[in-house]
Design a protein that fits this description.
alpha+beta; Immunoglobulin-like; twelve-stranded antiparallel beta sheet
Length: 172
């Protein structure tokens, strides 16, 4: 998992800037590849790609609802000598014991949840999902909040591969 400090910096940079496009004022944002941004941190050494969803749908009992959510972000984090690790924050506490379904071009993967964060259950699952994301065009993440709201967040994968290659190289 990404360090709390690194994630907090990325979220703060994105939040304060108002959008990923203007997050470049952050001192640790080093690149933008279409819909994905690359950030670095030196202590500890970490590099990550991150994006916001292009579309978000919230429903309860099958009906659209307006809900308040924090930042919704999909990350891939790299550390020296380690493969990429995927994580997702849905902007709310997930339902206890729930999973997040990730659909990439028709193939489904699962993320395990803890509080407001979710990630694959093993390095092997990380590698499979990372390969799918690199080959895909969109990723749709479906989750359930502790209040019973179902959320569906759709992320563009335009620029994903280039951003992951850049982040990985920066953390060799």
């Amino acid at each position: 998992m990404t360090s709390l400090f690194g994630r907090t910096l990325a979220v703060a940079a994105i939040t304060l800037a108002g959008s990923l496009a203007t997050a470049q004022e952050s001192t640790n944002r080093v690149a933008t590849m279409t819909d994905w941004n690359v950030f670095t941190e030196e202590s500890p050494k970490e590099c990550w790609g991150v994006s916001k969803p292009k579309e978000t749908v919230n429903t309860r009992d099958g009906q659209p609802v307006s809900v308040r959510r924090g930042d919704i972000l999909l990350f891939v984090t790299f550390r020296p000598g380690k493969p990429g690790e995927i994580s997702f924050t849905g902007g709310y506490p997930f339902a206890g014991g729930s999973t997040v379904d990730v659909v990439v071009d028709g193939n489904t993967y699962q993320l395990f949840t803890d509080g407001e964060w979710a990630w694959p259950g093993s390095a092997e699952e990380d590698a499979k999902l990372l390969a799918a994301l690199k080959a895909g065009t969109t990723a749709t993440l479906t989750a359930r909040s502790g209040k019973g709201t179902q959320t569906v967040d759709t992320f563009s994968l335009r620029g994903f591969t280039a951003a992951m290659e850049d982040a990985g190289k920066r953390c060799q």
